[in-house]
């Protein structure tokens, strides 16, 4: 006979087994949750009324959660910018800027990967885009094939961590923390990671200079101000968009959804600026109109929160942007830009919703059979205290990410371990920063899993677009040094929480038992409690 204590490990084991089979995770989660739910009803662990919590949780998580509404906007923003030629222009200009230096093309890939990571949002899109553009050029100039594949795959995974990462939005939602705080916590590890990647390239240029040669002088077609101008024209518009999106959100001027809407509109404007056809004299007025309407829409978003007038103004301006885009899509390749962006957005958004539904079915039943208590007992009894807990969780997530996407890990695992992490990590960094540190740490961890042979998704994406002369063994071995670099990053984030917490607001360290409030004594005139005015 199955006892209540056996249900949590059975559910967890069933989940692992189903994932190994390879059935779609969203449907696997729903099927497991409902199957064990009906089994629990049959065994008398709870009644049918308990399962009524599932539709309520689903509607509350999907329809009433404004934070998740930001995902389609940020996805569309990344899809449009990834296909508008921005990456190609930036890589070309950066490659010529760093070309005279050993490893210059590697530096350009790392820096552009960092910038694109803030605007593309997905690892697949970034790895594929960077590989299609950079891989042939780096091979042409004699770069070592394993270095090429490693730096392209690693720079593609940066998008997991750099704000406004979709991973951080989902993590913030599942951990119950603000997106702005999660972004602030991610900046330190993001910059440190770029420094590690660049440092490795620098050392390789000293130890094995033939692996990362400088670009020949005759191949550098731009110098001086024209080169700097091209670099700035690629960086400044992107930096402005990132500043508007992140700055308004971190300063509390816009919600994540409003910031995502501004990002989507800004992506359309940047796509128009970089489009060669729209830069011709015959389309100048349309380009100016798109830019003006986009700026007006962004301003209207910022001002429309508490004013009916500005909400109407935003609606009018947004309609103007849509109309101008419909005019612009008469240009065939721009139309295919926009069309692919919508398709990618719908696909990712639908996947998120179905995973959320499946994970809700599973988690409600898992908690109903005391799975939370079972999990807390095992995780808090790990030897080593806080550090043992962190090492175990990171190793567990590392291997789990071989089979699951970050959305699936966020929706399945985080709700189970977040309360335990809050309890265990609070003595180290305080209650406010505990889950921020934990969430950013897991983001860094999941970056590593994208590179691990033979399951790393970034390696699969790279294999799909690499030419035949690039062997699969070169892709796998090329990823190994970058895996060690990212493992160093995980260790640094664990050992030095300040890498995450430095930019967060520090709680006021005050002993409330010693707080005294002194109220000044005010002399009041005497009050006459007599019987009223004297009689006449």
Provide a descriptive summary of the structure in words.
It contains 23 helices and no strands. By secondary structure, it is mainly alpha-helical. The chain has a domain at about 70-160 and about 190-350. The longest helix has about 35 residues, at about 330-370. The protein starts with 6 loop residues before the first helix and ends in a 35-residue tail after the last helix.
Fraction of residues in helix? over 70%
**How would you spell out the order of helices and strands?**
HHHHHHHHHHHHHHHHHHHHHHH
- Unreliable runs, pLDDT <50, ≥5 residues? 507-513, 515-536
Strand content: under 5%
Structural class: mainly alpha
Report the strand count.
0
Average pLDDT over all residues: 75
Radius of gyration: 27 Å
Gap between N and C termini? 97 Å
Form type = globular
Q: How is the main sheet built? A: none
Alpha plus pi helix count: 23
Question: Features of this protein?
Answer:
536 residues, mainly alpha
Give a short synopsis of this structure:
The protein has 536 residues and is mainly α. The chain has helices at 7-21, 25-43, 53-62, 70-83, 86-98, 104-120, 123-140, 145-157, 166-175, 179-207, 224-250, 256-274, 284-303, 308-328, 332-368, 371-380, 385-400, 406-412, 414-429, 431-449, 457-465, 472-495, 498-501. It has 23 helices and no strands.
């Amino acid at each position: 006979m199955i006892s209540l204590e056996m249900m949590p490990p059975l559910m967890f084991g069933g989940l692992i087994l189903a994932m190994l089979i390879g059935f779609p995770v969203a449907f696997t989660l729903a099927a497991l949750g409902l199957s064990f739910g009906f089994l629990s009803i049959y065994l008398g662990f709870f009644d049918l009324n308990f399962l009524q919590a599932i539709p309520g949780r689903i509607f509350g998580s999907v329809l009433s959660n404004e934070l998740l509404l930001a995902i389609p906007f940020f996805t569309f923003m990344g899809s449009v910018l990834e296909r508008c030629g921005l990456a190609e222009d930036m890589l070309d200009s950066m490659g010529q800027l760093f070309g005279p230096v050993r490893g210059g093309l590697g530096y350009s890939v790392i820096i552009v990967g960092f910038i694109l990571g803030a605007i593309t949002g997905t690892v697949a899109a970034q790895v594929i885009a960077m590989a299609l553009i950079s891989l042939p050029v780096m091979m042409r100039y004699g770069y070592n094939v394993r270095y090429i594949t490693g730096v392209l795959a690693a720079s593609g995974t940066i998008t997991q961590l750099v704000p406004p990462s979709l991973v951080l939005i989902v993590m913030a939602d599942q951990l119950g923390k603000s997106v702005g705080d999660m972004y602030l916590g991610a900046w330190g590890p993001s910059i440190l990671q770029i420094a590690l990647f660049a440092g490795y390239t620098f050392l390789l240029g000293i130890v094995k200079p033939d692996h990362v040669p400088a670009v020949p002088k005759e191949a550098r077609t731009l110098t001086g101000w024209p080169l700097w101008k091209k670099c700035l024209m690629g960086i400044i518009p992107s930096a402005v968009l990132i500043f508007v999106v992140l700055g308004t959100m971190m300063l509390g001027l816009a919600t994540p959804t409003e910031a995502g809407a501004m990002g989507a509109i800004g992506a359309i404007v940047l796509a128009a600026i970089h489009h060669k056809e729209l830069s011709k004299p015959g389309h100048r007025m349309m380009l100016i109109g798109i830019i003006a309407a986009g700026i007006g829409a962004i301003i209207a978003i910022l001002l429309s929160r508490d004013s009916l007038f500005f909400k109407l103004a935003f609606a009018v301006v947004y309609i103007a942007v849509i109309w101008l885009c419909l005019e612009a899509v008469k240009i065939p390749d721009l139309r295919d830009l926009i069309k692919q962006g919508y398709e990618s957005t719908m696909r990712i958004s639908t996947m998120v919703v179905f995973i959320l539904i499946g994970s809700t079915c599973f988690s409600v039943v898992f908690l109903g059979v005391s799975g939370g208590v079972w999990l807390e007992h095992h995780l808090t009894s790990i030897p080593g205290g806080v550090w043992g807990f962190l090492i175990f969780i990171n190793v567990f997530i590392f291997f789990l990410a071989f089979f699951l996407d970050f959305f699936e890990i966020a929706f399945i695992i985080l709700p189970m371990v977040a309360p335990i992490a809050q309890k265990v990590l609070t003595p180290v960094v305080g209650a406010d920063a505990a889950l921020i540190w934990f969430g950013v740490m897991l983001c860094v961890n999941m970056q590593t899993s994208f590179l691990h042979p033979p399951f790393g998704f970034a390696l699969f994406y790279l294999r799909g677009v690499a030419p035949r002369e690039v062997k699969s063994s070169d892709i796998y071995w090329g990823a190994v040094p970058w895996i060690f670099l990212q493992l160093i990053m995980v260790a640094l984030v664990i050992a030095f929480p300040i890498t995450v917490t430095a930019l967060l607001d520090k709680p006021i360290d005050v002993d409330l038992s010693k707080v005294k409030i002194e109220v000044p004594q005010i002399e009041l005139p005497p009050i006459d409690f007599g019987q009223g005015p004297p009689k006449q």
